[in-house]
Amino acid sequence: MEKEKKVLFSGMQATGNLTLGNYLGALKNWVTLSDEYECYYSVVDMHSITVRQDPAVLRKRARALLTLYIAAGIDPEKNCIYYQSHVSGHAELAWILNCFTYMGELNRMTQFKDKASKHADNINAGLFTYPVLMAADILLYQADVVPVGIDQMQHLELTRDIAQRFNAIYGDVFTVPEAYIGKVGAKIMSLQDPTRKMSKSDENPNASIYLMDDPDTIRRKCKRAVTDSEAQILYRPEQPGVKNLLDIYCACTNKTPEEAVREFDGCGYGQLKEAVGEAVVGVLSPLQQRVRELEKDKAYIDGVIKMNAEKAAYTANKTLRKVQKKVGFPERIR
Ligand code: ATP
Ligand code: LTN
């Protein structure tokens, strides 16, 4: 089949409660990109078990994340939204790619070092080879572009190196993917420490707005956001708290920082925080409403899960069979 649109792959882990940062920095972009590309958006549950999980909680969160993809506006008829664990090709290709990845390369991964220090009691081999599974995710679908945050760039570079190494030995097997880094302002910072990014693993619940927070909680968290004592609303790095509030405001209202600064000219921080709270509620309330409606329709979600897993497996298997043949596995007898 001729490729009409370029292929895009991305994934998110269902660990923790998703934040406004995940939505504005990733999901919202995914929706925009879904018209232009043939998209695969995976709930990467196999990556999640590199850190110990409660099985019931993981299952529930994975389904909630998949539902959220749809609620955010990704059309599951036109794009492929699926659980990584439903397509066995991910694990199979990851094994092969493990044999084309050097220990030294994996040793350099900063996320591994970071997670290993956070989970010193469980530094398992899966945590170490996490980037290889990620490479398998991307290469299985011959993805041209991969939208990721800056923190995942190192993993993407490794994916490119593995693909190029494999291609150099066996010919043109894999498409070498490019990173797609979202627009400026897509990095949402913590409301309590605007020098750190808003993160779902932050232990302070006031630091992050969770996607399922109710309107009053959202307003309260915005009101409590840390700012400064400059008493002027300008968009500049010297005022990271105010800048972050403006970034959130702009991302929620599709305005530019210049427009926002003009709008808040002469206003106090209280007014800014109130406006930001309303803007966030304006974006999250309809999203939450769609999530609740979708959750009621179990049969529909089940149908999406089944159909899209089959769609993903079809493409994945094509690549996998080609790779298996290249490395010398015997042909299957039909
Ligand atoms: P954790 O706290 O567990 O590290 P996280 O909240 O940082 O999680 P990830 O699961 O690492 O989120 O990332 C999911 C996606 O959301 C990635 O594409 C990432 O770039 C994006 N993302 C996460 N946090 C932010 C943020 N504060 N601003 C913009 N984008 C973000
Ligand atoms: N490691 C990524 C999630 C992820 C991913 C991928 C992203 C797993 N596989 C493939 C893009 C492409 C994260 O933690 N954000």
Would you write up a description of this structure?
The structure is a single chain. The protein has 334 residues and is mainly α. It has 13 helices and five strands. The strands form two sheets. The chain has a three-stranded parallel sheet. It has a two-stranded parallel ribbon with strand order 4-5. Strand 4 (145-147), helix 8 (153-170) and strand 5 (178-180) form a beta-alpha-beta unit. The protein is globular. The site of L-tryptophanamide has 13 residues, from strand 1 and helix 7.
Give a quick precis of the structure.
This protein has helices at 20-33, 45-48, 55-72, 89-98, 103-107, 110-118, 125-140, 153-170, 215-223, 240-253, 257-263, 269-296, 298-327, and strands at residues 7-12, 38-43, 80-83, 145-147, 178-180. Helix 10 (240-253) packs across helix 12 (269-296). Helix content is 54%, strand content 7%.
